[in-house]
Structure formats: structure tokens, C-alpha cells
Amino acid sequence: MKTFLLFSHIAFRNVRRNARRSLFTIIAIAFGLFCLVIFQALKVGLHREMVISTVQLDAGTLQVHAAGYEVNLAALKKMPDPEKVISVLREQGETRFSRRVKTSGLILSGKKSSSVLLSGVEPDVEPHVTFISGKIVKGSYVNTNNGILLGEELAQSIGILLGDEVTVMSQDMSGLPVSGKFPVVGVYRTELAAFDRSHAFLSIAQLQGFLHADGVVTEIAVRSDSRDESALADSLGRSLPAADYQIRTWKEIAPDVIQLIDLNDATMQLLILIVFAIIAMGITNTMTMVVFERFRELGIISAIGTPPSGILTMVVMESFCLGAVASLLGSAAAVAACGYLGRYGIDLTAFTSANQYFANSHVLKAHLLTKDLAAANAVTLFTAVIGGIYPAWKASRLKPVDAIAHI
Amino acid sequence: MALIEMSGVRKTYRSDGMELHAFSTDRLEIERGEFVCVAGPSGSGKTTLLNLIGAIDFPTTGSVTVAGRNTGGLSPSDSAIMRRDTIGFIFQSYNLIPVLTAYENVEYVLLLRGLPHAERRQKVSGALASVGLKDMLQKLPKEMSGGQQQRVAVARAIVASPPIVLADEPTANLDSVTGRDLVTLLHRLNLEQGTTFIFSSHDPVIIEHADRIITLQDGCVINDKRC
User: For the whole model, what pTM was predicted?
Assistant: First the structure.
């Protein structure tokens, strides 16, 4: 232990010996760490935004339907005993869920029309599941009174103002066409124009009445921030027979999101590998120069009785010291930058206005996780050690007689 | 048994495909407590002889036995340990560790041996005092003169009381007064502690103090005179 401390002590002082070279090496390593942490934090922020956009726009953490339910099927698929589902959710401590009726329809105003997905939602509880109620730009969210909520893009495209009446056409439970007039009680705007153009909301009671489907529920959306969606689905699946109910998590509803997240993760890992391979080569280069410059000195150290393992430790520790100082500097800079980017973010409106993964906001904010910072530091230190091993190994194999004779 | 025994030793180097003869001897023994000067012109093999005794180089043929151990059979780690425990080195160019203070340079060899703090402190202070540097403990090598650095190197060589001290032209870079003081100091240690000193030098002051002079020419011992 004493000798280890001695070698570490010498290594640390050697770092200061050629301050300029050490500084450049430290800056290079710190910059690599800084970039890694920032990219990782932005990636986490991006993934959070993608998940929020998916879960809180419409999907929820998971959805329960009748078995055999198919998305975009015009005919309503009635869920058997929705109260049983509600009861199971309550038993499991879930509080944020909403009954829905969904069907396709046509909205007409004068000579203009547009096909939409009509969603009947519970006005009191739906805002706990999705964020549409927080995106109202005119009027109010749907309520139990007669009225329809349209997206701003849709309202503009068919020339509708707040308070105007629109005609809605659809098919009822038995497949017969139905139509009715609904006043526009509110206009919403998410950050995803395509969604706004194609989704209209009414209260569930109104839509049930319009479709002659009293008491019919086609979907129950659940939002759980405390439980992993798979765990929640498994848990519900034990109480809700698969013959009657279909449970789909947001990952199954929007598989493209999770695939994109996986792709991002894989790309990030490749980036990490490249960045740290470059850093390792830089460290190896620096430490090789160090060993070459101190050829004679290392020979003397060996001659006076330092074993090869001691010389190896000395050089590796010097490399580790470079990495440790760089870790501190890089982490401090990265934490500061993440603090700024976490608060103000980067406005990506120009690039993401039509991107389904930015329905909540176009501002990408960094989200730094402690485990990511710790991992980045561990990788940096590991790289520093790895980068120092080859020159250290070479140094430890020096023959004292050759090294001492070296000029 | 002599402290150092060389038997049938031949050391050659290969350079550009040619074999260069550096040193050879049929038999050479050095006893404990001798104050030996290896003399001879440049290129006569003085440094090679010291390197072979110091186990930082190994014979091409033959055997070198130091304190009962054949250096040729040692692994790099074992030869380092042997040097640590048996030999003190004084080099021509001081060769202190530049990032360590005078105290730390001397303490280094004791730390390698794992001595406890109190003992290290006592020995280092004693060694530096014996070379007249007790007031320069915290000085870095670059803050000291050549003579002072060489005295620190001497303190480092003797602090662990090794049975053998090898000194390769220790006065070559010193002025005559400093050189004479240094040799006097080493001779005193030889007399007081029985340390075996082997110098490579043609400095008349060292030759004057030596009780044995081994003269080399072209890698061969041409004269071995006890004074």
C-alpha cells in the first residue's frame, strides 16, 4: 500500500511536470466526456419527450379494449363489462384512467368536410390521462353539455369559428349512418398539426347518445407514472381474461417509438465507442511520449530497485490522474451545460413541426441522469487506464542498462 | 565466499551485425568492505563491469554472483529486489527523481523496502545529515547545485545501508573541492560501516583513497593491484 501511494504520488506530480501537454490532454479527454454527457442528456430528454408525446397525447400508458379490437375499424367494438376493468384498476391502486368511445366520422361545414377520429371522453378524468385539455387556445375543453372540441388546423381548414355549429356524420352501433349538429365549444392546438387535423373530441355521453350506444365503452386508457407499462399490463392481465379483453401497452400501440429509442441507444453506443477510442489513442500517444522522454529516468528508477510492476503502476497512475482531472472538469462543464439546456432547451421547431414525436413541445431539453453521469465518468477513467496500459507495459519492460545509456 | 564473484564472464554486444567485446574475465572476486577503483580509458569496460555487478546487465557467458545470488538466473522482478536490498547506485549525472524533494528521493528506496515511517524518517535525516544536507530536505533537484544533487544521490545510495555501493564516475561532473569532499565522505562510510564501494573512475582523488585498483583495457583486466 505504501509503495502504491508512493507511485501514485510520483504519478500525480509527473502530471504537473509538463503542464501544457497535460493540460491539452486533459482538455481533450474532458471535451470527450462533456460531449458524451450532453449527448446522453439530450437523448434522454428526447426520449422523454417522445414518450410523453405518445403516452399523454392519446395512448396512455396502456389501453384496454374488447378482445379482437382493431384500430381504425369503423364499427364500434363494445367492451364487455367496463366496470369490471375499472374495479380491477382501482384494486391495483391506479387512479388515472378514462373510459372512451372512439369511432371514425366526417365533419362538415358548408361545402367543406374532413374525416376525423371522434373520441368520446370523460371530461372530468380525461385530463388526468392526456394533455389535450392543457392545449386549449379558444373556448374550453369538452364538458357534459352539447359541444365538440376541434383542433385548430381542422377548424381553420373547414372555416369554423368558436361557437359555430358543425355537422358530424358517422355510423351507429348497428352500422346505420347518423348525423347531428354540434356547436364548437373549444379549439385546441398541440405541436402536431397532423393530429389536430384529424381528432375531434366530445363528451362520452354525447357520443354514446349520437351513436345510439348508451353505456358503450370501446376503450379504457390508463396512465401510470409509478409502474412500468409491462408490469402493469401483466398485473391487469391476471385479472382480465384474454378471451374478453385486449391489453396493449403504449409500446405495442406505437412500436415505432420504442424502435426509434432503441435505434438512438445503439447509435449513441457506437458514438461512445468512437469518442472513447479516439480518447484512448490520444492518451496512449501522450503516455508513450512521456515514457520516451523519461527513458533514462525510468531506467534509474528501475536500477535502484523499483520492480517492473511498480513502474507499470506509476505510468498507469499518471494516465489515471489525467483521466481523473479531466473527469472533474468535463463533469462540471457538462452539469452546467445540462442545467442550462434542461431549463431553456433547444428550439427544434424548424425541424420537428411535423414530427409525431414532438406533439407536446418542440423544445428539446436535456435531462441528465445521475447514473449516466456516473457511467460517463467510469468510462472516462477506464479509458484513461486502458490508454495508459500499453506505454506502461513498455516502460515496465525497459532494461535498466539500455534506459540509463539512453540520451 | 567473496561478496562478489565473477567466473568465466564474457559480455558482448551486437551492433549492426557485428559482435563487440565489452568485458571479459576468467575470475574476479571482491571482498566485503573493499574500496575498489576500476580504472581505465573510455571504452575499456568500466561501466560494463559495474553494470554486471549491479545486476542491471547480465553476462553473455559465465556467472556473476552477488551476495551469494547468481544474477543471471533472476527474473526482472527478482533482480530489482536484489538491487533494492543489496546495492546502492551513484551515477555520474546524479539522476535523482526530478519530481521528488531531496528528502523524498532518499526516502524512496526505504519505501520500496517497506520500512515504517518513524524508521524512514530517522534514516533519511541521518543520511542527509551525513552528506551535509540536513537543511535542504524540501528542495527539489532543480533547486540544488550539481554537488548538492550528487550528495543527495550518495545519501540515497547509502540510506538503506546496502553491503555494496556502485559509483560510476561520481566526481566527473563536480568541481575538485566538492569531488574531494565526496570521496572523503564515501571513504569514511567505508571505514565506519564496512560498506563495499566500487568506483568506475580515473579521478586521482578516488585512486588515492582506493585500497584496490582494477585496471581495464579493451574489456580485459590488465592489472589488479591492492594498495
Answer: 0.77
